[in-house]
UniProtKB/TrEMBL annotation:
Top-rank lineage group of the source organism: Bacteria
Source species: Streptomyces graminofaciens
Entry protein name: Oxidoreductase
Cofactor(s) in the UniProt record: FAD
Residue ranges crossing the lipid bilayer per the database entry: 26-46, 52-73, 94-115, 135-157, 169-187, 199-219
Amino acid sequence: MTTVQQPPAAPSRPGVRPKVVARSGLYAVLAANVAVVTVFFVQAGFASNTLIVLGRLTGLYGALLMAFQLLLVARLPWFDRRIGMDRLTSWHRWTGFSVLWLLLTHAVFIVFGYADSSSLDPVNQLVDLAETVEGVLRAIVALALIIVIGVVSARAARRRLAYETWHFIHLYTYVAVVLAFTHQVAAGTTFASSEPAKTYWYGVWGFALAAVFLGRLVLPLWRNWRHQLRVTAVVPEADNVVSIYMTGRDLDKMPARAGQFFMWRFLTPDRWWQANPFSLSAAPDGRQLRLTAKAAGDGSAALKHVKVGTRVFAEGPYGAFTAMHRTRPESVLIAGGVGVTPIRALLEEIDGHAVILYRVATDRDAVLYDELRELAHAKGCELHLVTGPVSPDKLAPSELVRLVPDIRERDVFLCGPPPMMNAVLGNLRELDVPKQQIHFERFSLAG
């Protein structure tokens, strides 16, 4: 265990809570649109059959949530910097399952409602609707696609699929969206009820699709055209860890912060099609960017063979794991293994006194340790290298209090392997560290 300590630096101004503002804004937008949809539904009048009434209402709510889901996957920088891609991905996932159940309920209620008013059984009623009502067949295809996407998005199935396979299947969501919207235009009662309702729905879908087009296509293409990133150096840090340095044009205008990550795509003949998420391992300085990665798969293992001069297509920056979310003037930075990369970048940017806890199995696993030690010394911070096997827990509540007696009064930034992060989060809860002072992020990308 190594400790470096100097008198603490002057505390920085505690930050506001932009995450609460952004989250409350999204909830308010959704609630307002639910109210508008309900009003238009009531104005359109009710069918005599209760099942048909409920079917139409669940269909409208399902359409609204589908548009809201597009907003969650749009990767708009304002929301991403405040909420974080991992939280947006989690919301996207649960919104997706809500859409699936609402649309299934819509289909069942509509079919059984019309069957109750006719002499047909539900199966023949569905066939009759598909043959006689414009847009119903498209709706059936859309629902089938959404069911398939929902099945492959379940955790058990997701673990068995390569990311590229899952992502390719997931792209059919956009086909389902288009088919569902055309069904709504052709058969939706709110479209026929009034011009304001029609204008509203065109506006909702237009805004959602425009957000996806801007965040997923226009912004990445524009940023890469502007910055023209190229590899300038490939530096081994350990047996299976490598740092890649990049430079480009106008990097001082790139809105990246310490703690964020990019989806990196190295434009080589064998890897141009594959993107991998890696955090910045140094705070952006306007001149160069650096990532540091451990060989954990084919994509990351191939990084040590990247040649100087290789063009890089970077999507991002993404993530809310930044000093923007600080609530206290002093901090604790907890890193596990290669999770030290965003922690090292944060230490470079962060103001105020910080305590760094670096958890590794052995001293040899302490990647970037020399840099951490130099930074800690220069900034007057404490650095603890915590080594040893997983059990007993070297970051148990009693150990955390021993290393950082005032941990409840500090912001805690945490990054490392999922089991380690889960254990530390549990220990912080046991110590009653306020939730708003705990900052962590997992590599997740919505859609």
